[in-house]
Design a protein that fits this description.
Length: 382
């Protein structure tokens, strides 16, 4: 019998997040513990948090918010009066006498939020204030609160390319939104008059009809910048005339209003910019088109020992939410953990539901807001 014919159901380990039917739903206004607690613990300080809450489609008939409850303890005793941070938001109410707190989680948005202690300076344990050396441990502890997609119908097929994990990813009972074109890409390097890379430069582009305006991330230490890019205007110009501006701190660089850079329509492009010496005008850059665009959709991946696995092959979920994730054959017999979240990935070819994901920029590190540990899987041995 060939390896491909040996189709084996995956062993989803007991007590973890997804078992055949996926994440358990939640009734009422309080999020239930649906799986492995997302606890953080450092030097006696512990954040006790529930497992991922099952995300669902938005509905005008349902409140999108559910109360997620957690508890802060020190050496097993509740910590009262501490301020908790969830993502970038500091909860207005401090922990109560039992060390408990709650957060209104948007259950319609699959996302992971880092939970930490914003301040413990006024906190007490059994009525006693914390000492200075104890406070340091509170600054380090972290946990997470997550609303996550459901994954079920998981199977593994040891094949010629590797170990193929197949299954279905959904938002509640509905398939996830199909992958779609998000934008084209503009990249390049900003250098100074001597050709040295400029860090912190922001490149902005705007179509002459002023309908599309984009800003890059600040350039890195090598002067490299990148941004999403419309590569079109309302009147269908080809090439597309676009005005370009550069900002470095308080300095602004721009061309005359009638001066534009031409870009090929509906294509990504590279544009290097050299800033002028003081008192000189900005030299007109040239653009170079290349194939590909940024696509946004839900992707499923795996981690092993806490590190993302570089897959051999991955597909975008199809119209029913079905996906395939092929992992390297050297992971046979190992345990991996699945993650699922919406990513923006560059693809050199048009992306479509059920089609392959271009792995040229598959994440080597998971973005902090991507839900993870949704299913722990023992892969079949060869």
């Amino acid at each position: 019998m060939s390896l491909r014919a040996q189709r084996t159901p995956l062993a989803v380990l007991a007590g973890l997040l997804v078992i055949s039917g996926g994440l358990a739903g939640c009734e009422g206004d309080t999020a239930s513990d649906t799986g492995e607690p997302q606890t953080g613990q450092t030097d006696g300080v512990a954040l006790e948090l529930p497992g991922p809450h099952e995300a669902r489609e938005w509905s005008a008939d349902d409140d999108p918010l559910v109360d997620v409850e957690g508890q802060l303890t020190f050496d097993g005793e509740p910590v009262s009066g501490a301020r908790i941070r969830v993502g970038d938001y500091v909860l207005w109410a401090p922990t109560d006498d039992d060390g408990r707190f709650s957060y209104p989680l948007d259950a319609t948005l699959p996302r992971r939020y880092t939970v930490s202690v914003a301040s413990a300076g006024e906190a007490t344990v059994d009525g006693e204030e914390l000492a200075g050396d104890q406070l340091a441990a509170f600054e380090q502890v972290q946990g997470s609160i997550t609303a996550a997609h459901r994954m079920d119908e998981l199977e593994a097929d040891p094949g010629e390319r590797g170990i193929a994990i197949t299954g279905r990813v959904t938002l509640g009972d509905e398939p996830v939104q199909p992958v779609a074109l998000n934008a084209y890409e503009l990249t390049g390097t900003v250098t100074d008059a001597r050709g040295r890379p400029v860090e912190g430069a922001i490149v902005s582009t705007r179509t002459t009809d002023r309908d599309f305006w984009t800003f890059s991330d600040p350039s890195d230490g090598r002067g490299r910048y990148s941004s999403n890019f419309g590569a079109s205007d309302r009147i269908g110009s080809d090439p597309v005339p676009i005005t370009v501006h550069v900002a470095v701190g308080d300095e602004k660089f721009a061309f005359l209003p009638e001066e534009t850079v031409e870009f090929a329509r509906l294509k990504s492009a590279e544009m290097d910019i050299r800033l002028p010496p003081e008192g000189f005008p900005l030299a007109m850059p040239k653009s170079q088109s290349y194939p590909g665009a940024q696509y946004k959709g839900v992707a499923v991946g795996a981690t092993a020992d806490g590190r993302p696995v570089q897959p051999v092959h991955v597909t975008w979920p199809d119209q029913d939410g079905r996906f395939e994730l092929v992992l390297p054959e050297n992971l046979a017999g190992e345990t991996v953990s699945l993650w699922a979240g919406e990513l923006e990935l560059f693809s050199r070819r048009p992306a479509e539901p059920g089609g392959p994901i271009d792995l040229v920029r598959w994440p080597t590190q998971l973005p902090p807001d991507v839900p993870r540990n949704l299913a722990e899987l023992e892969l079949p041995a060869e």
